[in-house]
Every structure is written in structure tokens, then in C-alpha cells.
Amino acid sequence: MFANFDFNVIERSWYYLFTTGLKFTLVLTFCAMAGGILIGTLLAMMRLSSNKAISLLATGYVNLIRSVPLVLVIFWFYFLVPYIGAWIIGASEPIQVGAFSSAMITFILFEAAYYCEIMRSGIQSIPRGQVFAGYAIGMNYWQMMGNIVLPQAFRNMTPILLTQTIVLFQDVSLVYVLGSVPEFVTSAAKIAQRDGRLVEMYLFVAVVYFVLSFLLSQLVKRFQKRIAIIR
Amino acid sequence: MHYNWNWGIFWETSPDGIPYINTLLIGLEWTIATAAFGWIMAMVLGTIAGTVLTTGNKWAVRLATAYVELFRNIPLLVQMFLWYFVVPELLPEAAGNWLKSLPNASFVTAFLALGFFTSSRVAIQVATGINALPRGQRMAGAALGLTPTQTYRYVLLPMAFRIIIPSLTNEFAAIIKNSSVALTIGLVELTAATYSMREFTFQTFEALTGATIIYIIISIIALLVARFLEKVTAVPGYITTGSAGSGGH
Lengths: 231, 249
Fold this sequence. Notes:
The complex is a heterodimer of chains A (231) and B (249).
Chain A: H1 8-47, H2 52-67, H3 70-89, H4 99-124, H5 128-136, H6 141-171, H7 184-195, H8 198-227
Chain B: H1 20-54, H2 58-72, H3 76-90, H4 93-100, H5 105-132, H6 135-143, H7 148-178, H8 190-201, H9 204-233
């Protein structure tokens, strides 16, 4: 069955793929995780705000992003970001931003909607009495959130946030549709097509993704057991 | 900032000789067909794998775990490539050629990939649902003289499914969205139709808005159906996990 296969293509290109494509994917994953959790937390606080307008704005955004496929969101931001850039600096022509910046903005804003839902349930799981206690000892909203609610919400939600990050790591492969961002699948596909070795290359990509995602999810599982709060 | 809005573009004729709005609706049909076939596969395989995960048989559990981990840890895009480019080469030559020459090869590969991918997620939901049931239910089944198969068939699975309906509707919404990944293997579903409309007309934002609105309508319908199903099937006294589940795509 493997008689016609030539795995030399992997031997020739694995170093390049790991140091450019995979590195790029991991960097994008990490930045999108950091930015996504930050903005997602802000969105979650907005959703839970008692101000109707702020809460509706955040709810609308989260529901919009969550009902549209990631591929469509990638296209949206790829075409929209140049116009937003022009609008911000007042230029008359769309600003050409690289596919990298576009992908970065896309993933931060897309994943923020998913992280938001996780953080929202984290914040809601903190007993209301703690919030009242914070106010009662004279804290303002930000002190109460920053010192009481958010630290506990993060602690409770860390495993789910990390699991979502593994999903994000796999999702990054979809920037393939832009064709111009050097992430792992795109670079592998380019080499595969150049050398006419699709089968070997895609098997290799699948193995790398499987090993990394599997190891990461095992780590999260261990971590989850370690920080589990006994109730 | 120059952008010439032209909302009339949807009624102009595309190179296929039909208005662009119809191009999008044909794309929508492919989206729904792919999601529906994939969903049926995912439910059947996912229920089997999820049930096996909760049986006591050590080797069966290992096998089901391996199945779930295999399809969960490879990105959907890569799985599509595997089914489209790799599997036909791994099969005996005759079967491979037959698969490649199917008239709708990309549709078949797309729903196969989606079906297997989603089945691993459904399996976890089903297993969670069964494990959430009190152990007494299994024992009660045994005490009544039901075989393990009958216990699953008449007691555990019906209860488990009613508990996990919210997370299953989430998965259903996800499979509709995930079907857009099939554009990478040449299936002209809704997102791909939008992209081709953009390439012909350069009316980028009208095309993307059109698709976005269609996706939003689908998700609102899914939400309403989910609420209805949850209401009708709710098990009194059981707290469900809630529709707004976290994670996923």
C-alpha cells in the first residue's frame, strides 16, 4: 500500500515547516489566546453590566460572531480591516495591512466571543454575597471585580479556557483560506503541491496536529485535577 | 474611503445566468445538505461510541476512547484534506478511483469528514449524559431483569438524550457553521458561493453581508427549535446544562 509513497518530502521539509509554519501557528495561537481572553473578559463584564445599552452591545456582538462560521469571519476582517484602518487615520484609500495583522485581529476578536461566554459563566458562578461584601467594605466596582470576582472566575475557568485554546490552535489552520498567511497547513500544502506529494504531506500534518493537541489536552486534564476545588 | 455600495447586486445576473441571490441560495442548499448528512452520521456513530465509553468492558472503552481522540485532535480542515486527497490513495486502487470519480466527490468527502469529526464530539456528550444519570437507574434496570442492552435501550439512553439536548443543539449549530470548511475542497456551499460572488462583482461587503444574514437566520431558527425541544423533552427535576454551552468552534 505504501509502495508508491515517498516520505523523503517530509525529511526534506520538516525543519522548515516547524521553524516557519508551526512556529507561526503557535505564535498566532498564543497572541489570540492572550488578546481573546482579555477582550472576552471585558465583553463578559459588559454583558453582565446593569447598563442596558452596554449589555445589549456586547450580547449582540457575541451572538453575531457565534452564529457565523469562522471562515466567513476571516473573510470579513480580511476585507474590512483596510477600510477600518483608513477610517481611523482619515485616509481616502483603504490601508493595505498584511494578511498576518488581519489574521491576528480576526482571531483575537473571534475567540473573544467564545472566551466571553466562558468568563461569563465563571463570573456568574461566584456567589452574589461576595459582590455585596466587596461593596460593603467600601470597594468600588473595579476594585471588587479585580480583587474578588475575576481572580476566582479565572481560577474556576482555567481548564475550560485552556480547552478552548486547544480548539483555537486547531482553528488557526483555517487561515489557509487566505492562502497568503504562512501558517502550518498553508506552508505544508504549498510544499505538497510543489513536490506533488499531497498524501505524504497531509498525513504528516495530521500526525503533528494530533500529537500536539493530544499532549496539550492531557496536560489540561492533569492541571484540571490539580487545581480542582473540593466542594 | 471609496466604497460603492450597490445592494441591487443580488438581483443582477451572475455568469451562471441566474441572479446572485439564487447563487447564494443554491450554496445554502449545499450547506444544509452537507450538515444534514454529516449530522445523521455523527448521531449514529457518536451514540455508539458514547455508549461504548460508558460500558465496563476495558478494551471496548479503550477502542472508543481512541476513536474519539483520533477525530477530536486533528483540525477539521486537515481531516477534509485526509478524506479528499489521502484516503483514495490508501484504498485499493479500484475503490480509490471510484471514490475520486464520484460526481459529487467533494460533497461526499465533506459530509464524511464532518460526520466523523462531529461524531467524536457527540460521543463525549452522550457519555457525559449517561454518566450524569444516578447509578441506581442502571441497577434498577438489572433488578427488573433487563439485559444491559435493554437497560441502555429503554432506560439510560432515552434519559441521557433528554438531558443533553442543549449541548446537542450546540453541536448541530456547529456542524452547519463547520460545513463552510468544505470550500477548501471545492464544495460550493454558502460561504464559497459568497466568495465567488465577490470575485465576479467586487461588491465584497454586500456579498458577505448577504451570507452573514442567512447564517444569522439559520442560527435563530436553530435556537427556536432548540428551545422548543428543551421544553417538550425536559425531565422534571433535572437541571440541564443550558443552551449557551461554552467552547467549540
